[in-house]
Amino acid sequence: MQNRWQEDKAEKVKHSELELRVYTSRLLGYDKSLVLHGGGNTSVKLSEKNIFGEEEQILYVKGSGWDLETIEAAGFAPVQLEYLKKLSKLPELSDPEMVNQLVTHQTRASAPVPSVEAILHAILPYPFVDHTHADAIVSITNTADGEKRIREIYGNDVVVIPYVMPGFDLARLCAERFAAEAGAQTIGMVLLNHGIFSFGQTAKESYERMIALVGRAEDYLKQHKAWEFAPAAQSVSSSGELARAQAKLRADVSLAAGFPVVVSRHANERTLSFARRADISTIAQQGPATPDHVIRTKRLPMLGRDVGAYVAEYKKYFESLEPKAKERKSMLDPAPRLVLDAELGMCAIGRTVKDAEIVADIYNHTIDIIQRATALGGYRALPAKDIFDVEYWDLEQAKLRKGGKAPQFAGEVALVTGAASGIGKACVESLLARGAAVVALDLAESVVTMKSGPNFLGLQCDLTSEEQFKKALVQTVERFGGLDMLVLNAGIFPGGCRIEALKTEEWQKVMRINLDANLMLMRECHPFLKLAPRGGRVVVIGSKNVPAPGPGAAAYSASKAALNQLARVAALEWGGDNIRINSLHPNAVFDTGLWTEEVLAARAKHYGLTVQEYKTNNVLKVEVTSKDVAELTAEMCGPLFAKTTGAWLPVDGGNDRVI
Ligand code: ZN
């Protein structure tokens, strides 16, 4: 355990206890072996003057929905401390009433909803309280004799609390046990199968006690040869075959979930070694390391690829435990969120890429925890009933609802060619804005860093190289699980040249890029588009030159016309595979890299027009931008065009030669 306290950093915020609270909360959040994604919480008790000028004790406790790693002062909810202590003495308090009491006894209307563990923080008689779900603690407590081991490690330094679901009952139990068992040397509290609390007079003291306590658990694991495990498996490089297996898995899981999901594959020595363990069907089928993981990972990962069997088991789990719940529950989607497979390794599943990343982070830690507990004599998670109660606890599900309604293309994957500039770049933006995961391909290296964030993957790729494209496609599937939308945008427009002067090489070059490459792309993408949960969609960025060719552009016009005909044949052939393909014909889109101010001015002059007249030289007298084309491209992939295939649509402000 690394103590990350830095005196100079603390010095800068020492004028404010709340800022010190923020500082050490972030130190905890930074260490992923302590807390993951919204797990854990911290608090500080401060004395403040209320509006009447009276001193009042306020508990600043982490607000629900905030991550310790990035928390700010505004992320702490100020609740009246004496009131919380009074609440802790009630014989019982329902969840909705507890939340109501917490929210109505805050001193700042704009504060977030306080953590469900607020009352527990209130009853601990120390200014600073820190709580984590440290890997080392849950590794030790998720074993048959976990309590004995914890007492052996800590003696009277901690109070030990048996597992009780978080909320009011846990706060009450902790209050009782703490009053009965805490002594002068008590510096923490271990919650079996859940996590650990530390506390102290100062932010530093409480933080350093957490580090020291967890450090002792880590030392214990090391002494018992339950810390590190040499991987047995070699990592294997991705292949088309694995990509197809992964895409099939994604299709099956999406069907079970009732919405498209992202499936990201993590196949490395560690995950493959774990997935191939002889005892995997025992150790990976016990349950999560700490109950709040369940809302992300579900209780159990799926072993292998039989989604139907997983769904049947999930239904059984729900049907056997739902009648025992305090109130009636309706079943969540029964699809797995994590898959362990001897060939695929570990696959993390989510409604969004971010969700899948969270699942992967949690399970990467779970692998360590399970292997360590197994080395101590056997991983033993909480009974299914306890996990069910947290999975179906409204206050936990509320955390997921905070994300809001899923965007239009959540869980779907789009691939755009010629994506580094102009219409391609605008398509990337329009698809990202609708929540799709987007893979951007371009010859230009700038595509790699063009956008950031979990939904974007930029790959440099020469589309005339079948080998390069196949590699890009494998990377696409490995990262996101499949392919739903393909935007064929890349193309070249060579300078004007009449037929009598057109060289064969020039003609062939244009055909190779504008036509042949797209045939190869369509062919290679077909197996994946066919598996798209909402059906595959292809949009071809054509040209006005298809319906209305221009002199001097023979190769370009012919290549785009042939591509258009290819798309129409694809519409006929692929309709049965639920893939629709449509063409857009833009014209006079000038906000692209090709059109500099000088070129525009020269062309306008050539036609005796001003630049503005030249830009809007169409029936509607409007300027057509890359964004106009991109927005229509994205919409063509959406429900408005769900029943349209083989169509071509101009986006040109109206052209008298086309109309
Ligand atoms: Zn907790």
Structural commentary:
- It is a single chain.
- The chain contains 24 helices and 18 strands.
- The protein is α/β, with parallel strands linked by helices and 659 residues long.
- It folds into 4 domains: 7-223, L-fuculose-1-phosphate Aldolase; 240-401, 3-Layer(aba) Sandwich (L-fuculose-1-phosphate Aldolase), CATH 3.40.225; 413-589 and 625-651, NAD(P)-binding Rossmann-like Domain (Rossmann fold), CATH 3.40.50; 593-623.
- Strands 3-2-1-4-7-6-5 form a 7-stranded mixed sheet, with helices on both faces.
- The mean pLDDT is 94.
- Zinc ion (ZN) binds at residues 131, 133, 166, 194-195.
Instruction: Give the CATH class of the largest domain.
Output: Alpha Beta
Number of strands: 18
> In what range is the share of β-strand residues?
5-15%
Shape: elongated
CATH architecture of the largest domain: 3-Layer(aba) Sandwich
Task: Break the fold down into its secondary structure elements and pairings.
Layout (H helix, E strand, L loop, with lengths): L6 H7 L3 H14 L10 E9 L5 E8 L13 E5 H7 L7 H10 L13 H6 L4 E5 L2 H7 L4 H9 L3 E4 L6 H14 L6 E4 L3 E6 L2 H21 L16 H18 L4 E5 L2 H7 L4 H4 L10 H4 L4 E2 L3 H15 L16 E4 L3 E6 L2 H23 L8 H8 L2 H8 L11 E5 L4 H12 L3 E6 L13 E5 L5 H15 L4 E4 L15 H26 L6 E6 L12 H21 L4 E8 L10 H10 L4 H5 L10 H11 L11 E4 L8
Parallel strand pairs: 5-6, 9-10, 12-13, 12-15, 13-14, 15-16, 16-17, 17-18
Antiparallel strand pairs: 1-2, 1-4, 2-3, 4-7, 6-7, 8-11, 10-11
Bound molecules: zinc ion.
